[in-house]
Each structure stands twice: as structure tokens, then as C-alpha cells.
């Protein structure tokens, strides 16, 4: 696969990258790293890579989930190319695409970053975002001249610099390409996590953008991206205005007890006593009985707090949106393919967790699933997937459709489209809650179908080709447990 060049000036583009002009096309292996596989019929998610490329080149940061979804949809609508180099080539002849790319230069964030900067400062900033260094003098002069002459827009310049960097086949050029790919991959993980952790409202504004930009600037051609995910999650947790679970605080047994409220009504045990969490050890406490709920612990996990019983997730405290967009807390129980608001039954020695009459179950006519349902088609015989274990799975995901066979509507993702498998730590919050809860208990070699309600999926947030409030269906095969 070869990359075409813009009609601007081949030598100028290569000089702009500060690299060699010994070649104008990347080898096939490199090209495959830089773009998603071509599909007969494109879908919105095919544009994730190129949208992240635009955000990185222009703003130096990962895309926010709403911006990603918006640009993916608009690029799909005009059947745009799905890699940065080809997109730059199509820019001059596609008016809709031109308007879309140019919108980067008219955005509020652009004014905040570059409003007082001259063309030299802008070009240097883009090169720092893309390649982590200043441009060669010839490249700097070329792009500054083009911007000052208004023969290119800022958005087009950023896109073209990114596209040209991917065509440079010199030794330095191949290192640059690896750096770019690493930053795109890190950006994709960051955006996915912001969405999965339901903290999209926190990833807005100049301060949040700056923190994400500083984080992404740490990525080099040699960065271990798996290890770097910890840095990304730390950055997410440190974003300003991150939703926090709040409520009244009082002293209980010498520790701080946080008692939660949800929409003005307290969360209570079955006897009517409000409960909360001992902030010193995340153990659930009932204020009515003045005792700990033996064996039931609260485990903080990126965007929610899981409730554990004997190291098994049995429920969760999650963010919900209240009046005027306020972040509130909902306490939900899930088990036995049922879901509902929880009730706590206690004695001096034990407790039981259930939702009695409040429980709801899926039916064959459910327009959307209301409870997590686990259906084992093959029961494995190997190690068991348990809380805090790292598991590797293969999977396929569909949108829930009550009229489709097995409720499997439109397929939106599969591990076969990526590396063939996917690894995550159960309970770490790196996947949707439906996976954290639904995969636990599987044995290696087993295959399980998960029917997941939106509250355990992406909730009210759209995610790529997954609409807001969507039920999901996954088939998951457990490959290994560590």
C-alpha cells in the first residue's frame, strides 16, 4: 500500500518533516501500522485513527469522546479516506472535508492555544505535537510562508504535516512513524477510558486539555504502551471537575463515614437505616445497626465503586445524572440475572443482599435488556476468572435487538478485527461494568454470552457506533487467567 502526496510541493512536505527526500511512499508493513484495514463499507469507528491524528497534530491531545464521535460521523458521511495522508490529499477537492478540517482553526480551543501566536509559533507547536521536536529550518520556512500567504489554513497545515511524516522512509522517518503510532494508540486508549469511566464532563475546558496534552507529550517511539496506561488513568483521575461521590460526612468508630444520597433520598438498608462507607478502609457500614456489614466491601474502581462479597462483585455504586446535570450516586444490585435497587438484610453475624420485589429480569420481549444475563454455551475446565485476576479473552459484540436471533443485532466490534484477543484486570474498571461482573466465574476454555443493559454498558453516552442507552450482547471466550 502506498501513500499519495499532496499537490502542494513534494519536496516542501518532506522538508517540513525535517527528514530525507529519498522516497515518497512507506513500505507495506509501515502502512499497515498507520491505518485501519480497508473495509468494503466503512463504518464510523473506521475513522477513529484519523480523528485522533487530527486532534494530536492540531491540539496535541487525545480527542474527547463527543468530538471523536462527531468527526467520525461527519467523515463517514462524506466517505472520507480513513488515514491522515490520504485525508490530506483529499482536502483541496472536497469542500465539506475542507470545512471540517478548517473548523479546528476556528474553535475556541484553537483561540486559547494559538490566538496570540504567530505562524512560527504555530508550526513549532504542531511539530512538537506530532514529532516531539522542532522542524528543520527549511520546513519551518516553508510552512510559515504558506500560512502567512494564506495558501493553507492552520488545520490543513497540521493535517499535512502529520500526513507527510508518515511518508518519510528514512531511518529517522521510520522512528517518527513509530512515535506517531504510539501517540495515536495512547490517545485512543485515553478517549476510550474517559468514556468508559463516565467522566466525559470532566474532559472539557483548557485545563483538562492541557493536562491531557502534557500526558501525551510523554509518549516516545520506545514507550511501552501497556505500562503507560497507568499514567493515562492517573491523568484521567486528576482531571479538574472529575465527578466525585459526595454526601454527608460524619464520624463513625473513629473514622470518616460517608453517607450517600441519591436524588434527595438516602440509600437505606432493609430496616430503614442509612448506610455509608468507612473512608478508611472502604468497608460498608450500616448506621442503623452501628456495625460493619460483615464481608461486604466497597472497592473504588475508575468511575464507580463495586461492592464485593467474598471477592465477588455483587453490586456497585455508580454515577447517575440528577436534576440540572448533577452527579449523584445510585446503588444497584445485580445477580441471578436480575437487577434492582438493593436492600440489605443484616443480623449480628451476617447479611444478605437482594432486591426482592424490586428485582427486574429480562424477558423475550424486552425492547432493551434490564438486567445482566449470563448464558454459558461452553463451560470451561481451566482456571477461574476472579476478581483482581488478569484475563485474556476473545469476543464479538452486537447491539441488542429484540427481533434478532439471539438478540444479536448489528455487530460493532470483534477481537478478530484487532489482535485477536484482549486482556484486562477484573474489577479494575478498565472495561464496562457488564464485563467486569459478567466474566467473573468463567473458566478457561469456556464461552459465555453476556446480555448487558445500558447501565452496565456505556449508559447515556454514545461510544463510536454504539448509540446512547444501548443494550449490548457479547460472546466471550476465556483464553487465559493470570
What does this molecule look like?
It is elongated and about 70 Å long. The chain starts with 9 loop residues before the first helix and ends with a strand. The chain has 14 helices and 19 strands. Strand 1 and strand 2 (255-262) form a beta hairpin. Mean pLDDT is 76; it is low at 1-40, 244-249, 251-255 and 261-266. By secondary structure, it is of the alpha+beta class. The strands form three sheets. Strands 1, 2, 3, 4, 5, 6, 7, 8, 9, 10 and 13 form an eleven-stranded antiparallel beta sheet that branches. Strands 14, 15, 16, 17, 18 and 19 form a six-stranded antiparallel beta sheet that branches. Helix 1 packs across helix 9. The chain folds into three domains: 10-237, no CATH class; 247-361, no CATH class; 373-481, Chitinase A, domain 3 (Roll). The relative contact order is 0.09.
In short:
The protein is of the alpha+beta class. Helix content is 33%, strand content 24%.
Distance between the termini: 38 Å
Total beta-strand segments = 19
Rg calculated over all Cα atoms: 25 Å
Structure classification: alpha+beta
Question: How large is the count of helical segments?
Answer: 14
Query: Main beta sheet, described?
Result: 11 strands, antiparallel
- The tally of domains stands at 3
Provide the residue-averaged pLDDT: 76
Fraction of residues in helix: 25-40%
Amino acid at each position: 500500500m502506498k501513500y499519495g502526496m499532496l499537490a502542494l510541493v513534494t519536496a516542501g512536505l518532506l522538508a517540513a518533516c525535517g527528514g530525507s527526500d529519498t522516497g515518497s511512499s512507506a513500505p507495506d508493513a509501515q502502512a499497515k501500522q498507520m491505518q485501519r484495514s480497508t473495509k468494503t463499507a466503512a463504518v464510523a469507528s473506521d475513522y477513529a485513527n484519523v480523528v485522533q491524528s487530527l486532534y494530536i497534530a492540531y491540539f496535541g491531545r487525545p480527542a474527547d469522546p463527543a468530538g471523536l464521535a462527531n468527526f467520525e460521523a461527519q467523515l463517514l458521511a462524506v466517505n472520507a479516506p480513513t488515514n491522515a495522508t490520504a485525508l490530506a490529499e483529499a482536502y483541496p477537492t472536497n469542500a465539506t472535508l475542507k470545512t471540517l478540517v478548517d473548523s479546528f482553526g476556528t474553535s475556541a480551543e484553537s483561540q486559547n492555544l494559538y490566538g496570540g501566536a504567530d505562524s512560527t509559533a504555530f508550526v513549532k507547536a504542531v511539530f512538537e505535537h506530532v514529532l516531539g521536536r522542532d522542524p528543520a529550518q527549511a520546513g519551518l520556512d516553508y510552512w510559515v510562508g504558506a500560512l502567512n500567504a494564506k495558501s493553507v489554513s492552520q488545520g490543513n497545515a497540521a493535517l499535512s504535516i502529520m500526513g507527510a511524516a508518515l511518508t518519510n522512509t528514512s531511518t529517522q522517518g521510520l522512528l517518527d512513524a513509530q512515535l506517531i503510532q504510539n501517540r495515536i494508540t495512547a490517545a485512543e486508549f485515553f478517549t476510550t477510558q474517559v468514556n468508559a469511566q463516565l467522566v466525559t464532563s470532566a474532559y472539557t475546558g483548557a485545563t483538562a486539555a492541557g493536562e491531557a496534552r502534557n500526558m501525551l507529550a510523554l509518549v516516545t517511539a520506545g514507550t511501552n504502551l501497556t505500562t503507560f496506561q497507568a499514567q493515562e488513568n492517573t491523568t484521567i483521575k486528576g482531571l479538574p471537575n472529575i465527578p466525585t461521590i459526595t454526601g454527608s460526612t460524619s464520624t463513625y468508630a473513629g473514622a470518616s463515614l460517608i453517607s450517600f444520597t441519591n436524588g434527595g433520598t438516602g440509600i437505606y438498608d432493609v430496616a430503614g437505616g442509612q448506610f455509608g462507607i468507612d473512608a478508611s478502609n472502604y468497608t460498608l457500614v450500616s448506621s442503623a445497626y452501628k456495625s460493619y456489614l460483615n464481608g461486604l466491601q466497597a472497592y473504588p474502581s475508575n468511575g464507580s465503586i463495586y461492592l464485593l462479597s467474598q471477592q465477588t462483585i455483587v453490586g456497585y455504586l455508580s454515577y447517575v445524572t440528577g436534576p440540572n446535570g448533577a452527579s449523584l450516586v445510585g446503588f444497584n444490585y445485580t445477580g441471578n440475572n436480575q437487577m434492582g435497587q438493593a436492600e440489605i438484610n443484616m443480623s449480628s453475624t451476617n447479611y444478605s443482599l437482594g432486591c426482592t420485589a424490586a428485582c427486574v429480569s429480562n424477558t423475550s420481549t424486552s425492547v432493551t435488556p434490564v438486567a445482566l444475563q449470563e448464558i454459558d454455551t461452553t463451560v470451561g475446565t481451566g482456571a477461574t476468572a476472579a476478581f483482581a485476576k488478569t484475563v485474556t479473552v476473545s469476543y464479538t459484540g452486537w447491539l441488542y435487538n429484540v427481533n434478532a436471533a439471539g438478540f444479536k443485532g448489528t455487530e460493532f466490534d470483534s477481537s478478530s478485527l484487532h489482535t485477536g484477543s484482549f486482556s484486562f484486570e477484573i474489577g479494575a474498571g478498565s472495561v464496562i461494568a457488564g464485563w467486569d461482573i459478567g466474566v467473573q466465574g468463567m473458566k478457561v476454555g469456556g464461552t459465555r454470552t453476556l446480555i448487558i443493559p445500558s447501565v452496565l454498558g456505556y449508559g447515556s453516552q454514545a461510544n463510536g457506533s454504539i448509540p446512547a442507552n444501548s443494550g449490548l450482547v457479547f460472546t466471550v471466550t476465556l483464553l487465559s487467567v493470570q
